[in-house]
Predict the 3D structure of the following.
Amino acid sequence: MFEQYEADANKFVSEVSHELGNEGNHQVSIRILTSVLHTIRDLLTVEGSLHLISQLPLLIKGIYVSGWHLGAKEKIKDKDQLIEQLLLQNTRTGPTDFGTDEKALNNLMAIIRVLQRHVSPGEISDIKAQFPLELKSLWTSGAPA
């Protein structure tokens, strides 16, 4: 049974790696995935997060909830704060993974494209509704906002 969970997670990470143009380096892909998921988590309500992760592979759910603190948090309001949050998720590697605005948004969009293939359109709509106005277009455009 665990082998199936591992296979599902590997397939998901392979999709992430492909979208990032990082096929040979799953470690970097997982690091970027983690930072993006944690940043998205900071934009959603607890209920919204639970609905999102209900549709993810089990081991990816583990990445999502790792280090999750349910207390009050400062809300991300715009693209600059979003990029800053991506950088701060992993202070050691954030500058490498998300070093420029363009790179940060491209990596974010890669993860969003994978999520859109795994999460129902209704749930994507609910997630988008929780994003600040300036960031809603990330879920509908094929390119960075």
Remarks:
- The chain has eight helices and no strands.
